[in-house]
Amino acid sequence: MTASLPESSSSASAPSASLSGGQTSHPPGKSAIGDALASWLRTSDENFNGAPSWLQTERDRALQRIAEQGIPDAKSEAWRYTGLRTLMQQNFQPVGELTAIPLPQEEINHLLIPGLDAHRIIMVNGRFAVTLSNLSELPSGVRIASLRDTLTQDPDALDGLLTRIAGEGSHVFASLNTAGMDDGLVLLVDRGVLLDRPIELIHLSVGTDKPHVAQPRHLVHLNDGAQAELIERSIGLNESTYCSNSLLEISLGRDARLKHRRIQMESENAFHICGLHLLQGQGSHYAGVNVSLGGAWARNDLVVRFSGEHAECDLNGLYLAGDKQLVDFHLDVRHNLPNCTSRENFKGIVHGKGKAVFDGLVYVARNAQKTDADMSNRNLILSQNAEVDTKPQLEIYADDVKCSHGTTVGQIEPEMLFYLRSRGISALLARRMLCLGFAGEIIDALGNEALQDHAAEHVGSRLERSPL
User: For the whole model, what pTM was predicted?
Assistant: First the structure.
């Protein structure tokens, strides 16, 4: 379903090419992925020097896939409404060393959310910043570390976990992450451990002399019965041009529970690519909230798989897209086992010449009886030049299921706006109030009051800056 005046989705493309026989640590030829993406891997063979053999094998396989996949274009259904031309015009280079980036503590303190008490990890341009993080008082049975350090000091701890959940990923950018990952977060929680405070992961992007790309890779594993809350925030400190191509793998053991909140507020010139791959064990529960407010171009892929029955997955999302912005959410939820539940509830507010894409798939296999799934996507358009492309899908092969999906695209009701204006409320404030009311369901799902206030404030300020 496409709303408003559609504009063509364009992208640069190049013919695919195969790598020569044997494994290699060098990027594929530029004919496969073009100059723009080949430069992302220019120093890939320098990452994790002396990496374990199993990781090197996965990286070599990723390089092979990159050559085979090439650059997606509008002929690919998954990229039909998501043009890549602007991204391909950038000349992103791999990020340099963290030590070259001055970052005073006062600037970090300014970014913290008042009232949010959490264990805190800070990553700068994709690198784990130990000196800026606060990991004191971690309970026994919780391991939080840099991916780079873990692979150097204890690679066996990640064997069988890292790259297993995401597999080949959803597209070429996932393969690029596997081949070029440089650092990331490792969060391992032992059986039955309950964290009483959230873990906050702050992704800071700081401008460098040249447009840069960071490719962090994160791994979260909760053993049986463990419980945790993870808060992710992506922030750009200035208006420089950069790209974040991150991938997060989450595995939940039997009866494990994870609350996962993600707020993306990149700079106005940023490109944001994020893949989240979730594997849920028997009786586990995942509650995710995704809020996307920033960036010039943002693509989010949420992939869910079940490895045990009676698992529950809740996915909620809110996105704002204004002038010169594209926000894209792709969901792929696969019910391959019986008796699992999934809920997907996403809302969008699009204004100016903004563009939003929602492409959600719930797949129910033949043997996945007693599946309970519901997908909803509702959108609010604030201008005639805004565009929403929405496509919720159900693919069902079982006959004893409870599944539904729906989508709406509409405008603010004139009667509601008139009601507020007639009571002396300005048009700008009235629109903000109505939009926050529309978004309130998703903001409330964040749960934490400090996080709710933080999200509502930024949604409101974004709307106030947008033209009527």
Answer: 0.90
